[in-house]
Amino acid sequence: MLLWLGLALLLVLLDQFFKVLILGNYQLGEGTVVTGFFNIVRVHNTGAAFSFLAGASGWQRWFFVGIGAVAVVVMVWMLKSHPGQRLFSLAVSCILGGAVGNVIDRLIHGYVVDFLDFHAAGIHFPAFNVADSAITLGAICLILDEFLRVRRAGR
Predict the structure, then answer these.
(1) Is the per-residue pLDDT at 140 higher than 70?
(2) Which of 27, 49, 74, 135 is deepest in the core (most CB within 10 A)?
């Protein structure tokens, strides 16, 4: 279990490191063109994924902190309950690290700092961060783990 908690901690540290760099070097809305399809930008997201509830009156900050806190407890329990399942534990660790990274932002700033901006043909994907990437990778690994589990059960 320590390996998986260590991975989650590493993801939190990476996420917070890059967010500190962005906050120290960019003003809100500023950005740098990196390629024809990728920019570094500073965006504040008071909502959840894809700015869900971003326009709410402020209650969403504590709502998402609460959800994150409950999720952390559940994920630590899941890691403890399934120590031999490597892909599953990797997935949960990634989600755990990402969730903690974004909860830290909400507690400190009242919003999540996003800075990775991909775009094509004038269409921008919503900006995201290292924590969001870890959560996405974890979700992909969970789906893969379930496909593999069902496949093994069918033999």
Answers:
(1) yes
(2) 135
Q: Which residues contact 123 (CB under 8 A, 6 or more apart)?
A: none
DSSP-derived letter for residue 27 is -
Look up 105 and say whether it is catalytic: no
Q: Per the residue annotation, which of 15, 105, 114, 117 is the catalytic one?
A: 114
Percent of the chain with pLDDT over 90: 70
What is the residue type of 21?
A: L
Candidates 105, 117, 132, 145; catalytic one: 132
CA angle at 99 for the pair 4 and 148, rounded to the nearest 5°: 55
- DSSP annotation string for 65-87: HHHHHHHHHHHHHHHHH-TT-HH
Quick check: helix, strand or coil at residue 36? coil
pLDDT category, 46, cuts 50, 70, 90?
confident
Using a cut of 0.85, tell me whether the model's pTM lies above it: yes
Q: Which two tokens stand for residue 30?
A: 């500023």
Enumerate the domain spans of the chain.
Answer: 2-153
- How many residues in total does the chain contain? 155
Structure tokens at 51: 């700015």
Identity at 26, one-letter amino acid code: Y
